[in-house]
Amino acid sequence: MMAVLKAGGACVHLGATQPIARLAQIVLDSGTKVLLADPQHSEIFQDLVEVITIAPEFLENLHSRDPLLMVRPSNPAFVLLTSGSTRKPKGIIVEHGSLCSSSKAHGTNRKVEPHTRLLQFAAYTFDVSVADIFTTLQRGGCICVPSEEERTNDLAGAIKRMNVNYGFLTPTVAGLLKPTDVPGLRTLILGEEMLTRTIFKLEPLEWTSS
């Protein structure tokens, strides 16, 4: 994501668990010219667009170079897609300037600081992930990314192993955590769902409903 933005491009996130037909339609509708994928998913789109497989050997052979373009605040940074639950998904364009200003405001409001170790739990197809990543980076914090196995089966263990102290979760997911299992988690933001009474058992965490 950082490489694409620095090059003056815009990111459109694709979810690996989404139907192939939906992903292909997003690629076509967005006018995507290049797709970055891991080895597991790189073959899916070979017939639609140029695919670059991001693997260790590819990264090892890269050479750093100066940016070729002057990136302006009005350049698109992300295209975030609506769920499409009622009709065809719509793309919402977020410009570089908007991304920077929203990250700055979120960082101040949510008290993200250099010592922040944020759990990057939200799927990349949700706007929450963009706020998590770029607000934390802008403030000098650390982004802690669990594996899919940890996300599903051992979230508390991942939080503890990575010394996570900050997170944004839905009340449903947060309600599965026991405070004694995540002693280092000090700030928890809750959103995307109605707040439930069971979440109050997470005291003494500092939490904010969003």
Main β sheet profile = 5 strands, parallel
What CATH architecture of the largest domain would you give? 3-Layer(aba) Sandwich
Roughly what is the average pLDDT, rounded to an integer?
83
Number of domains: 2
Give the number of DSSP strands.
10
Protein name: AMP-dependent synthetase/ligase domain-containing protein
Domain AMP-dependent synthetase/ligase: 1-198
Keywords: Ligase, Phosphopantetheine, Phosphoprotein
Structure description:
It contains 8 helices and 10 strands. 21% of the residues are buried. The chain is of the alpha/beta class and 210 residues long. Helix 4 packs across helix 5.
Question: In a nutshell, what does this entry contain?
Answer:
The protein has 210 residues and is α/β, with parallel strands linked by helices.
Structural descriptors:
phosphoprotein; Rossmann fold; ligase; 2 domains; ANL_N_sf; 19% strand; AMP-dep_synth/lig_dom; 210 residues; 3-stranded mixed β-sheet; AMP-dependent synthetase/ligase domain-containing protein; alpha/beta; 5-stranded parallel β-sheet
Secondary-structure blueprint of this entry?
Blueprint: H1 2-6, E1 11-12, H2 20-29, E2 34-37, E3 50-53, H3 56-60, E4 76-81, E5 91-95, H4 96-109, E6 117-119, H5 127-138, E7 142-144, H6 148-153, H7 155-161, E8 166-169, H8 171-174, E9 187-190, E10 206-209
Parallel strand pairs: 1-4, 2-3, 6-7, 6-8, 8-9, 9-10
Antiparallel strand pairs: 4-5
InterPro entries: AMP-dep_synth/lig_dom, ANL_N_sf
Keywords: Ligase, Phosphopantetheine, Phosphoprotein
Domain AMP-dependent synthetase/ligase: 1-198
